[in-house]
Amino acid sequence: MLLALDARNASISVGAWREGGAAGPVRFRLGAGASRSADEWAYALDSMLRAGGVEPSLVDRVVLSCVVPSLSSRLLGACSKAFALEPLVVGPGVRNGLKIRTDSPSELGSDLVCDAVAARELMAARGLDGHPCVVVDFGSAIAFSALSASGEYLGASIAPGPELASLALSRGAALLPEARFEASTRAIGRNTADAMRSGLALGFAGLVDRVVERMAAELGEPCLVVGSGEEYGRLLEPVRGYLSFEPDLALEGLRAIAALNPAGAANPGGTGGDPRG
Fold it and tell me: Above 80 in pLDDT, residue 22?
C-alpha cells in the first residue's frame, strides 16, 4: 500500500492507495502541531490508519511533500518508526513529469509541483489535453499556478489567505477583532464583524477573479481553472468557474510522482521541483 503525506503550515493531508492504484479506504487530515515529536507523529499516523480500517503493516511505500522545513525531519522519523520505511521526498532529483520554466525551478514548493502534476492528470482523464490551466490552491496562502497548453509550469502568484489577513487586521488595528471567514452577501456591513466579513469574502473573491483573469490573458487563450485545498475556496469560485474542485489534489499528485519513481531508487530529498521533469 502506498501512503501519501502532504504537509503544509496548518495541516497534513494523508491518503492511501492499494495495489493497482485503487483509492484506499482512508483519507484524513492532522493539525500540523509545531511541538509534536517524531514519536507522536508515528503514533498519530498509526492510530488514524487503524481507525480507518487500514493495518499499518500493509504500508510498503511512503511519498512525502513537505513545505515546512522544521517539520520534515520529524515526519521522516515518524515514517521510520511507524512503518520502518524511508519516504520518497518530492524535491530536486525526483522525477515528476513536469517541465518547470521558472527562473529558479528548485525554489518551487513541492506542494505546487504536486498540484500541477495532478491537474495535468485530471485534464488528460477528461480529454482536455492541449488547454492552458490555472491551479488555485487555497490554504494559509492562496497560490495560483499557471500551466501552458503543453503542460509546462510557467510560474505562480501567491497571496495571503483570508485567515492570515484576518489575523493581520486584528493585530494591526487595535479596535478590530479577529473575524471568521464566512460568505457575505452584502458589501455594506452594518457592524464591525459584518464589515470585516464583507471585506474578506468579497475582497478575496475579487482577488481570485483578478489573478485568474490576468493569468488567462498572459497565457493568451481561455484557460481551465482547477481549485484545491481548504473548503473556503469553494466560496471564492472565480467567475469562469472551476473545471473541478479537488480538496486533496496534491495527494493525487504524490501518487502520480510515486509511480514515476520506482521503489528503491535514490532519493536526494528536498523541497522543490525537478526542471528535468
Answer: no
C-alpha 238/C-alpha 123 separation (Å) is 18
Banded model confidence at residue 271, pLDDT cuts 50, 70, 90? very low
Q: How far apart are CA 248 and CA 20, in angstroms?
A: 20
Q: Which residues contact 3 (CB under 8 A, 6 or more apart)?
A: 14, 15, 16, 45, 49, 59, 61, 62, 63, 83
Name the packing angle between helices 162-172 and 192-219 (round to 10°).
130
111 an active-site residue? Answer: yes
How far, in Å, CA of 123 to CA of 106, rounded? 25
Cα separation, 91 vs 268, in Å, equals 8
The verdict on domain 105-249 having CATH code 3.30.420.40 is yes
As a whole number of angstroms, the distance between CA 144 and CA 254 comes to: 19
Nearest to 255, CA basis, from 12, 11, 13, 16: 16
Which one of 6, 46, 111, 274 is the catalytic residue? 111
Q: What is the mean pLDDT of residues 177-196?
A: 85
Domain 2-89 CATH class label: alpha beta
pLDDT at 182: 84
Extents of the domains making up the chain: 2-89, 105-249
| pTM, entire model | 0.90
d(CA 133, CA 76): 33
Q: Which residue has the higher pLDDT, 265 or 104?
A: 104
**Angle 115-117-121 from CA coordinates, rounded to 5°:** 110
